[in-house]
Amino acid sequence: MTSGAGDAQSPVASCAYPAEVFSMRILFALLLSCCLPLAHAREPAPAEVAVLVTLHQLHAQVPAYDHAALKRSIERLAPDVLCIEVSPSRYAARGPEANKIEYPAVVYPLIDARGYRVYPMEPAAPRDAEILQPYLAASRAFAEQQPAASQAFQAQASALYATLRLYWTSPARVNDAVTDAQMQAKHALQAALVGEGERAGWEAWNGEFLATIIRAAREHPGKRIVVLVGAEHGYWLRAALARTPGLRLLDTASLLAATGD
To answer: For 195, left (φ over 0), alpha (ψ -120 to 50), or beta?
Structure first.
């Protein structure tokens, strides 16, 4: 009786490949290892996004963040692209602003001087009315139907801003987590008091801003986008952008603090 070693293949032998097949596999692996770095190299870097909040008329009441300080802050963030809190028609007109006085005073001259690519964030007609009309109707109904609550809320909001004006001793503080937390709490209370019309309108209006920022980031990979938006919108946009793939949210307060602002 023979041992069978010469009659049957061993487990190792039964899994062996012909030499030419093995060589082809090695060649394929080498080609793949060379191509993967090239594929990754072709992937564009994500856009960087910094949200820089503005104070509209309150710039005149906050010495540390007056128009000159706002101008310095924009320049120190070194944007390639600006997303601005006006509608396309208002940007085209560049007229006087009753509330957002920083635009004719600071933002529009900087755009002309620096040649930034600009994306207006407020929706154009008729989308603006679709959002604003029910939002304002809810606010009017709250004031008419719950006057005591409305007056108390307005008093609290005034006290909040009085306190923040004392806290805002630098542009970094206007853009920090403390300010964002105060604004988030204000809007949580506002939505709870006023109701669904307030909440839905606030979400929709901020959502328009977010959609524009995402489009700007998609169209400008690897570039720095600075978003100019009123102080009450900052917390909402930072939280939403932190969850958005395809871009990198910067810590605006840290960047400004690093430059002494």
So the answer is: left
3-state secondary structure of 175: coil
pLDDT over 70 at 102, yes or no: yes
DSSP calls for 89-154: HHHHH----SS-THIIIIIHHHHHHH--EEEE-SPPTTHHHHHHHHHHHHHHHHHHH-HHHHHHHH
**Each residue's pLDDT tens digit, 32-70:** 555 555 444 567 799 999 999 999 999 999 999 999 999
The answer to whether the CB of 64 falls within 8 A of the CB of 257 is no
- What type of residue sits at position 26? I
d(CA 33, CA 257) in angstroms, rounded, equals 43
pTM here?
0.83
Instruction: Check if the beta carbon of residue 223 is closer than 8 Å to that of residue 45.
Output: no
